[in-house]
Amino acid sequence: MKRILTRILLRFRMAGSVRTKLMLAFFIVATLPVGALGYFSYHQSSKVVNSQFGSYVLYAVDQLKLHVDGNLKQIDQITGNILSYLIASSITVGDDVPSTYEQYVEERDFQNYITSLESTNIFVVAVITPSGRVIGNQLINEQSLAESEFWSDISQYGNEHVLIHIPDYYSTPANEYMISKIVPLNRPFGLPDGSKLLIDMKADTVLSLIKSFEKDTKSHLQIMDAAGKVLLQTSSDYESREDDIVWSRTLDAEDWVVEARVPYATFYESSSVILRYSALFSGLAMLFGVMMASFYSIRFTMPIKKLAHSMRRFGEGDLLIRTPVKSSDELGFLSESFNKMTEQLVELVHEISRTEKLKSEAELKILHYQINPHLLFNTLNSIQWKAKLARQPEIQKMLQHLIVVLDGSFNFKQTLVPLRKELEIARHFIEIQRFRYEDAFTFRLEVQPELEECLVPRMVFQPLLENIFFHGFQDGQGNIRMRIFEDKNILCMTLEDDGAGVTAEHMKYIASGQKVPGKRGGLGLRNVDERFKLHYGEAYGLSIESIRNQGTKVTLTWPTTTEIQAPSKY
User: Fold this and answer.
1) Domain tally for the chain?
2) Which residues, 6 or more positions from 56, have their beta carbon under 8 angstroms from its beta carbon?
3) Which end of the chain has the lower number of beta carbons within 10 A, N or C?
4) Any domain includes 386
5) In 3D, which of 62, 64, 68 has the Cα closest to residue 212?
6) Cα–Cα distance between 482 and 426 in angstroms, integer?
7) Are 310 and 329 part of one and the same domain?
8) Which residues pair with 418 in a beta bridge?
9) Can you give the pTM of this predicted structure?
10) Which of 395, 427, 389, 393 is nearest to 408 (CA)?
């Protein structure tokens, strides 16, 4: 199955046209479910049918076993009654005809007793003396019994014996199967030593059950002895095969086996019928699937082929090509969209050709107005020397700090810098603010020395400090605490102030990365957060906690690294 699916998928990928792919897709969609349904329905149905059929045959075998066991138990009960009668009475029966009236009466009473045990299915109950004289039912012909092969075979057994046969020792031929039990009466029961008790029970009910079950189950039922000899069957011309389905049960009363045999083809006949119908319906479904696949593939691929032709012509330079719209479905919408697109592209080509010249001129103008960073640094250095010559040390120091900050801002070559360089820029920015606000604020920096070589995106601390002075402090008054530490290979920077804080309403805008309405700035925080996420992933970046009139706490997290990474556009 796996190999077939692999070949189907390979064929699908190698199909040249959309029409072929659609036909394959429709065929697979139409046939695979039906085929799978047919297979599983056949498998499950045949399994259920075979199981039910097997259960019924086994039920028939069990019923036949119970019936035969019941008959044998009835014969055993009659045998027990006769033996109990002989033990309890003191009769004396000789091997010859009674010579006295008293012997005649005793023998007559015994004969009346055993014949009284006969019933509808108990055909004969009799005692056979060693000389062959029959005491009991007069249907037994003594001469026929003596000449019977059955009786000569029985004399070989020294104990009880039960068999099923057609007796040949009756005065009137019965031609019926009998279940016969022969019990040697070796004990002194008042009978001659060597006498035997013979009980014949009709087996017609057993035969009728066998015939009924054979008709219903289409099987062959038989009863065999322990040696495998068939004792009773309805047909002797049945030939057993090795592939027959066999059920068997052993009787409780005797070592007989009730066996049912069903030919393999007969047992799976219902499954074969289910298989034929499943195959028929699957074949019809596949034929219908091919027809539907052909119809719908042509229906869908013709507009697509026309559209592909128009697109090819358009790509070759025929800008005036259009594809016909013949339907209002998705394919028609696609063709209409292509026509609109070609019109827009034609207009866009003219627009581009018209504006390209204006764009070139604008770029030339921009080049004229670009500010050269070297010119800015040279100018600031010149002002710094002028301040030194004019003996203005404060202006000189401010310019010195400003040059360091600007140098970090214009250094686009490095995306990640050591933490010590970024902290140096932050310190210079703080010094510039001291020239502005003098001692109105305090700044405390706590950093573990071993972390100073760890890398951090450049220019991320200065925007956060600048945000405190522009939005948090009033006239620069307040306290700032900056801590940098490591926790499980994660660097963490916390920047706390006791300024004005942020309102809950404004925090919603800041948390979503939006600009606060009516407020200047606000882009610095978002820019820092985006740069950290672009470098390290969404799990890192900036978080803000703020309480109005109590202060703000900004937290930055990023992984610990000291390796120089590839430059980023950020």
Assistant:
1) 3
2) 216, 217
3) N
4) no
5) 64
6) 11
7) no
8) 455
9) 0.44
10) 427
